[in-house]
Amino acid sequence: MDIEQSERLPMNLSAVRSEHDVLIVGGGAAGLTLALHIAATRRVTLLNPVKDGQGASRWAQGGIAAVLSPEDDIDAHVADTLVAGDGLCDERAVRFTVEQGPAAIAWLLSLGVPFTPDDSPTASYPYHLTREGGHGARRIIHAEDATGRAVIDTLMQHAQAHAAITIHHDLFAIDLLADGEGRCRGARGVDRQGRIHMLVASDTVLATGGASGLYRHTTSPLPASGEGMIMAAELGAELMNLEFQQFHPTCLYDPGGPPFLISEAVRGEGGRLLNSDGQRFMPALDPRAELAPRDIVARAIDAEIQRSGASHVLLDVTHLGATAIRQHFPTIYAHCLGRGLDITRQAIPVVPAAHYSCGGIATDLDARSSVPHLYAIGEVACTGLHGANRMASNSLLECLVFARSCAAALATSGGATPSFTTTDDLITTRSIGSLPIEAERVYRWRQHIGEVMGRYAAIVRHDSGLDLAARQLDEIGEEIRSIIDNATSSVALSSVWHAVRLARLSVMSARLRRESCGLHYNTDCRHYSTSEIAPHPSRRLLADLPRGRY
Ligand code: SIN
Description:
Layout: H1 2-6, E1 12-25, H2 29-38, E2 44-47, H3 56-59, E3 64-65, H4 74-84, H5 91-111, E4 129-130, E5 140-141, H6 147-161, E6 165-168, E7 171-178, E8 184-191, E9 195-206, H7 227-234, E10 239-240, E11 245-252, H8 264-268, E12 272-274, H9 294-308, E13 313-316, H10 322-328, H11 330-338, E14 348-357, E15 360-362, E16 374-376, E17 381-382, H12 394-413, H13 439-456, H14 463-484, H15 491-512, H16 537-544
Helix pairs in contact: 2-6, 2-12, 4-5, 5-12, 7-15, 13-14, 13-15, 14-15, 15-16
This protein binds succinic acid.
Succinic acid binds near residues 261, 264 and 392.
């Protein structure tokens, strides 16, 4: 409630216009990497609302997957990614990403990211490489168990010191601007005083994160809820794979405490999942046991919880020894101890929670969306890398690789001056009025969306539940639609309006997919065999929706 209230913004309808070259919306790993690469040739404006300090990249614990050890190879990483993606990856995107991995890591090392060294005399690579689910080799480079924090802090230091990068911490994008020919021409934002800003830009890049915030229980405190995806769709950008929402198998079960991830690296280093009888249950379900891909482990935990009626399962690391636990997982150890749990002596209670959106804005290998001058990088994008289920630690890799390829494309496209002179030439997707909306009401809508998604569109789905979810989301959407155009602008209101429509599209995508695969498990649909993969239904559907009215 406090957050919602602090976001209530006073009204001031006179728009402030400013002109920009490359406008990046979002300051996580993808946005900052792009800024640092493109700033040599173009001027960068980066919108990084204060809340983004809490963004998903910063909370990533495990690390970054890349072929770094001489004992590993590109084909093996490609093959593991394709298997984890359950037949729906775009192999071209997978190979492109994996091949670019070592150069991306070399760049991070050159900036000084403090990755954990491997001091053992037999080490074949100077930095420690851990394992996570789906990976057949040790290939995750990490900074202890707080890799995201180490990467973001380093990138942010460099970006803040760069003369060609201007960072705004007080501007929140609420929608995109288009010209009369359907090209993206920047974004409309709102500042803390409630003033509207027209940020006119030659090229706009969305790096706004995923949509896990549509769910009530998530692995990070303030996840995005698909705002960037809907803003792009409003301009006619193609979205795809929205039904593939990943649930991380092991979020700390801590009612009353903040969301907290227990990294997959914990299982990579030998952690075992136990049921309420103290028995391991993964070996009987999959030969990869605790290191099976995430969709399989999360579903197994969900089934175990349903079977036993327990509120959680257990993740036991006590057999690794106190020294190893404290050395490998200092952040997790300290957090749990602060919550009254000594993980060197007690098993960790865990539950699955919403973690990562595999779908998003469809892009090519240069991060171009289907709307001219609009690009998308990081979790907001759907590059084809993850297919129906993302493999652990491939996401930070994707952020780096596609930010770098996007920068190369933008450097050659050269910053054409927008073909309009006045703000009147620009099209926005909604008007903004003066009716104040109570924070309490916005909060209730947000809670309701989270409950509907958690109940009907989570790890296990069925047709009637999805139909019910669609009806309930329609009702919430109608209520918001009836006031939105006349309402005072606020970040919270704008975000919930984006969220309800993205939730509705995600449910629609889930209902249209008539087979279970990867993260989309519908008890009314059979699991396909790989030879029967259906062409993706949501791709066409989402592109055909009327602009700005869903
Ligand atoms: C983890 O450490 O388990 C999260 C990293 C990821 O989602 O790839």
